[in-house]
Amino acid sequence: MTLVLAWNNVRANRMSFAASIAAVVLAVTLVGGSGLLVAGAGSRDELNGVMGLLVLSAAASGFVSVFVVASMLSLHVLRQRRTWALLRSVGMTPRQVSRLVTAEALVVAVLASAVGCVLAVPYAAAMAAFVRMTGLASASVPVEVTMGPFILALVVGLAVTLLAARLAARKAVGVGPLEVLRESAAQRRLLSWPRAVFGVVALAGGIVLLYLVPQVKAAAAVPTGLGATMALCVGASALGPVVLRGMGWLLGAAAARLDPGAGMLARSSLVAQPRRAMAAASPVMLTVALACTFLFAVATGDAAAGVTRTGPSAWAAPMLVGSAVAYTVISVLNTTAMTMAERTEEIRLLRTLGAKPRQLTRMVCWETLTVTCAGTLLGTGIAAASLTALGKAATGEPWFAYSLPQYAGLVLVCTVSGLAGGLAATRRARRGALLPD
Amino acid sequence: MDDHAVLLEEVTRTYGKGATEVAALRQVSVAFPRGSFTAVMGPSGSGKSTLLQCASGLDRPDSGAVRIAGQDITRLGEKELAVLRRDQVGIIFQAFNLVPSLTAWQNVILPSKLARRRPDPSRVRELLHRVGLAGRERHRPAQLSGGQQQRVAIARALLGRPEVLFADEPTGALDRSTGHEVLALLREAVDAFGQTVVMVTHDPQAAVQADSVLFLTDGQIVDVLDRPSADQIGMRLGGRR
């Protein structure tokens, strides 16, 4: 029975399910591949110089993977609250529903981890080739298939997927069935106590790390700075709904002024559902914060040491952070699509009230742009804080090097993938037959 | 200009293809005069909801014409249809009529906002007062009862002074006394504002509020009763079974 239900759930939620699988596959690929690379480099003494960077990029990949998979899975589970509530109301016990969620997450985790492990080998080989081509390492990094990285990736993939699903399910199942069905959009509480405490602790940890950056040894400065960025990202995304409600209100007010109908709809949905908005803004924040910290930390270090990189070696830093960023950009697309797909019913209603197709398109765009903008602002703030600390460590001045084209490109990529996800997910509701059959 | 708010001419609507083909409407012709309150009744599957969907521009008939204020809406493009729904038609469904993230007030003025018009705040206030929601302007749908939500939807439909107001089982999800209040509001809209109302229902108690009752069976109008009593309606429905 549970299996039949789980299978039907998967079929009914194909898109959200596919997005979750994609997230886990890429995460396992990223973690496994980086692990293979580090293990390969560790076996050769002459690769000691490049080891630090490889470990750093592996850590970034791991962090990003955990972050994205966790948020994707909880989004996936919360999306199905109505289904769970319905099952509860026909007499399923919370335990049974919880088992159902676990069964589904297990299928996702096992399937996706297996595929991810297979993909990790070619990914590691490609990265090794890249490292040699850019002249980052003096010798080529050997990629040997050893068990360690795979076990690590599998454990991370399975553990994070299951844990995120179970935590989200506890939230979804703990609520009485009627409450869920009635509540629709009005959220009961902006922040739960554990979430608030967790956010504050992460934020405080980030600030401590920022303070430590100029104090630690020169070699440890960049890892500490990157750690500060990660901790701040975790804190901001936990406390995000509060921040986002204010930001959504302000940015949305501008949109509502420019475009009364569509803008008003976009703003009100951001203000009424800051948690959904934060889920979509998180990957943007992560992309901007992590990429900026990594890229401009290297640039700042180079500038302080008076090094100018040209040719292939200029690409070393962007490349190392590239796959983690590519992953977060994909998750921007994924989460925007998922949060927007929830709105199909509302979009159909708006059409019956006479919203023109163009107005609906604009509504989706305004909302996505506001969310992207909020994420960008948060990410920029976090990166700027870490970079200032790093600059202080390198030069003694609160200063850092940056490249405006790289920054603009990053923001543009996030915006475009957010818009693409949002518009694609709502296309059928906006343009298709008005009456769903 | 004729004195019909809505006119259906030989409207046919078929769902599915081949063996599963179902004719929901077969060459239905009917006129809804301005300022009249019409109830559409019939067993489930009789095509009463399809009639409403075709008449309101939510669905396109396979053949025939639908005229609202003299204009054939079956020839309109998606954008023109949207404008028609916004300015000339009000629709109230059984449930989920309101945008969940908007307050009652914002829901009422939404069509005007979409039309980039500035609604008169005193009229919005008066309408909300009239439907019994004074003081609840800033509540979100989740904070309102089912009956209150329906009344917000009625206020929204009345604000635009549409040519016709369609209601699909507006009391279907409500208890009897709340349902009665909603019906009284629809009746009042007809009597006080000269609003044209077309309502699909399966409840004889709801249909007695109407000036005339259409009976649909297998996609065809089989009977029309003017100002019937609940007993007459009940017998008409019972006789068919």
Produce a short descriptive summary.
The complex is a heterodimer of chains A (437) and B (241). Chain A has 437 residues and is mostly helical.
What does this structure look like?
The complex is a heterodimer of chains A (437) and B (241). With 437 residues, chain A is mainly α. Chain A has helices at residues 2-12, 14-42, 48-79, 81-89, 94-133, 147-174, 177-183, 193-212, 218-258, 260-272, 274-305, 316-341, 344-352, 357-395, 404-431. In chain A, helix 1 (2-12) packs across helix 5 (94-133), helix 2 runs antiparallel to helix 3 (48-79) and helix 14 (357-395) runs antiparallel to helix 15 (404-431). Chain A starts with a helix and ends in a 6-residue tail after the last helix. Chain B is built from 8 helices and 10 strands. In chain B, the strands form 2 sheets. Chain B has a 6-stranded mixed sheet with strand order 6-7-8-3-9-10, with helices on both faces. A 4-stranded antiparallel sheet of chain B has the order 2-1-4-5, covered by helices on one side. In chain B, strand 1 and strand 2 (22-33) form a beta hairpin. The radius of gyration of chain B is 18 Å and the shape is globular.
Please estimate the helix content of chain B. Answer: 25-40%
List the helices and strands of chain A in order. Answer: HHHHHHHHHHHHHHH
Query: Which sheet architecture does the biggest sheet of chain B show?
Result: 6 strands, mixed
How many beta strands in the DSSP annotation of chain A?
0
How much of the polypeptide of chain A forms β-strand, as a percent range? under 5%
Q: What count of helical segments of chain B does DSSP give? A: 8
Q: Using the CA coordinates, give the radius of gyration of chain B.
A: 18 Å
Which spans of chain B of ≥5 residues are poorly predicted at pLDDT below 50? none
Work out the strand percent of chain B. 25-35%
Q: What overall geometry of chain A do the principal axes of the alpha carbons give?
A: globular
Number of helices of chain A: 15
Distance between the termini of chain A: 27 Å
Give the H and E element order of chain B.
Answer: EEEHEEHEHHHEHEHEEH
Main beta sheet of chain A, described?
Answer: none
pLDDT averaged residue by residue of chain B: 88
Overall domain count of chain A = 2
- N-to-C span of chain B: 41 Å
Question: Segments of chain A where pLDDT lies below 50 for 5+ residues?
Answer: none
- From the alpha carbons, calculate the radius of gyration of chain A and give it in angstroms: 22 Å
